[in-house]
Amino acid sequence: MSLQRLLVEQRQRVDALIALLEEEQRALAAEQVDGERILELARAKQAVLEPLSQTETRRQAVQQHLGYGAGLDGALEAAREAGCESDWLALQERAGHAAHLNALGGQLLQIRMRGNQRILDFIRELAEKTPYSPDGQPGRRPGRVDVSA
User: Fold this and answer.
1) Which of 30, 37, 47, 138 has a CA 20 to 30 Å removed from the CA of 73?
2) For the whole model, what pTM was predicted?
């Protein structure tokens, strides 16, 4: 497979990943988070990431087979000499965008998790102050005298 074809294939896969990351971001920013949808998106992202990784491995192998050094400098030189520098640069731009979206998604997830933890802490605090015993019977309330004795 030609280097240009690999770069185009990678960019298509990165674009698919970006679409999923954007959808995930919308799902996480929604008023009500649909946990099932978030799981579906995670599975879909994994389904895109695996072949993307395989394509990257093939691209690196082609790059080295053609005698170029490993890393970004070798990749740029290989793409330039193969006449597909614009494909390489477009791929790099899209990959950077995907990384940015992924970081934002992680931040949104952290915000949601902190919010959920605050809610759980509040519920736990309320449960500790309840005027009922664990079996649902009225218990002793602080500040009241128990006259049942």
Assistant:
1) 47
2) 0.78
How far are the Cα atoms of 27, 73, 101 from residue 23, in angstroms, in the given order?
Answer: 6, 33, 10
Condensed to tens digits (0 to 9), the pLDDT of residues 52-70 reads 999 999 999 988 988 999 8
Query: Under DSSP, is residue 148 helix (H, G, I), strand (E, B) or coil?
Result: coil
Task: Measure the CA–CA gap between 50 and 39, rounded to whole angstroms.
Answer: 17
